[in-house]
UniProtKB/TrEMBL annotation:
PANTHER family: DUF1611 DOMAIN-CONTAINING PROTEIN, GLL3100 PROTEIN. Residues 131-328 form the D-glutamate N-acetyltransferase-like C-terminal domain. The lineage of its organism: Bacteria, Pseudomonadati, Pseudomonadota, Gammaproteobacteria, Celerinatantimonadaceae. This is Putative NAD-dependent epimerase/dehydratase family protein. Residues 40-124 form the D-glutamate N-acetyltransferase-like N-terminal domain.
Length: 333
């Protein structure tokens, strides 16, 4: 799935900044992909880009309008349809990571067909994948794993990719979720792949490469989450990772969305992830821990990370507060 760049980011009528987190992620990590933003009346989100209309965006070179809104239920409202049709009519493709497919909306499908445009429903893979072989392949791979869902695995992967690139290392970010795909412009949404083929899909996504090339693969779910451990397992085996980074949010009282399940202990989580990863790469190791300390004040955040670093003997950082340079130092050591 290769989405044409640059983008016009569609914020629609997003009620708040969080609802436009997809657009914000694209703007944060790849501002060079963005020609501007399109906001409808009542929009309360702002990515800090120029507000431009669709003809102006097309004249500036925009090739795809990306729906940067992640609304509850993942639907496309009737109010959006005329705007999306206008983008198709002027010559842009559309891309979205919502639960509702762009291609299932008759008005959009008809307009796209009439004007020869492509609509990317990035949550839904468009190719078949093989069963994984597990055969050792050249190249290096890093995979963030989590104590829970939504603890910063994508942010950590993007930050590590950026840091490696700054050091002139060969590196590619490999997106495995809808937001990561829209941020990077390519990838496969593994939670929509049939379970027998998840590992094979990751082998295709991060194939054999130069011996000194790093693929930084976006992590998903958690081995300890009762809903998503299966996706995580397939991803771990297909990644054949040389290096793992544990991602953690320390203030949670239970696994996200499942109050009957407590978060695992850090050591317990690391040991199980290593055991699973060693099936396809016996030499795998942890190189650091990435902690989301957004809900802690600065003093408590640094106190927590200092103590955890003493316990695990690995670099412990908050990538938002500190960056990931210490993890990358350890990775390349």
């Amino acid at each position: 799935m290769e989405i044409q760049k640059p983008y016009l980011l569609f914020l629609g009528d997003a009620p708040d900044a969080l609802a436009a987190k997809v657009a914000q992620g694209i703007k944060q990590w790849h501002p060079e992909y963005c020609v501007g933003q399109y906001r409808m009346q009542g929009c309360n989100a702002d990515c800090g880009l120029e507000d431009i209309d669709i003809p102006t965006a097309h004249a500036k070179g925009a090739k795809t309008m990306v729906i940067g809104v992640a609304n509850r239920g993942g639907f496309i409202s009737n109010a959006w349809i005329k705007v999306l049709q206008e983008a198709l009519e002027v010559g842009m493709d559309l891309a979205a990571g919502l639960h509702v497919r762009l291609n299932d909306i008759p008005e959009l499908a008809q307009t796209a067909h009439k004007f020869g445009r492509t609509m990317f429903d990035v949550r839904f893979p468009t190719q078949d994948f093989p069963v994984a072989a597990g055969t050792k392949r050249p190249g290096k791979r890093l995979l963030p794993v989590g104590t829970d869902c939504s603890v910063g695995k994508m942010y950590t992967a993007l930050a590590i990719t950026d840091e490696l690139a700054k050091r002139n290392e060969k590196v590619t970010f490999r997106a495995t979720g809808q937001t990561g795909i829209l941020v990077s412009g390519a990838g496969v949404c593994v939670d929509s792949v049939i379970s027998d083929f998840i590992s094979g899909a990751v082998e295709v996504l991060a194939p054999a490469n130069d011996p000194d090339h790093w693929d930084v693969i976006e992590g998903q779910g958690s081995l300890f989450h009762p809903s998503f451990a299966g996706v995580t397992t397939g991803l771990i085996h297909g990644a054949q990772a040389d290096a793992l980074v544990l991602c953690h949010e320390p203030t949670r009282e239970h696994m996200r969305g499942t109050p009957d399940f407590a978060l695992p202990e850090i050591d317990q989580c690391m040991q199980l992830n290593l055991a699973m990863a060693k099936l396809t790469n016996p030499a795998v190791k942890f190189v650091g821990i990435s902690v989301n300390t957004a809900k802690l004040d600065e003093a408590k955040a640094y106190e927590y990370m200092t103590q955890l670093e003493k316990e695990v003997g690995l670099p412990v950082v908050d990538p938002f507060r500190q960056g990931v340079s210490r993890i990358v130092d350890n990775l390349l050591a």
